[in-house]
Protein: KIF17 protein
Amino acid sequence: LQMLERQVVGGEQAKNKDLKEKHKRQKKYADERRMQLVAALQQSNEDSSDWVLLNVYDSIQEEVRAKSKLLERMQKKLRAAETEIKDLQSEFELEKIDYLGTIRRLERDLLLFQQLLDQVQSLVRRDCNYSNLEKIKRESVWDEENGCWKIPEPVIQKTRLP
Structure:
């Protein structure tokens, strides 16, 4: 009877090497899996709602306290996100105001230059190619490299009568 007891441990054969290897593999796999779960929990944000679901509580009060703390943290995050949104909106509004001011200034400048051209056009000689502004606009080309307009040279067209 004592010899049988030494051979059998926990209902399994004590000297069976295959069984021992199987237990070692299972234990190693369980340890690896446990380490993976611990690493995953550490990587996940403690503030996530999944964190609350992973805990086992001894009492309802303990669960309420844990969920209350989580709620407070989430409310802090929400308030921080709301202030960030307000900051971004105010920054956007300031940029919008600045752009609108720039557009208004450029429109005023354009109107000034248009009025100047209208006044000066009547002073240009009729035999000059600059007397027709629409023709000059059609012949002008935008130069991408230099960032400016290439305007045709002024030419005086002399007409001679026979």
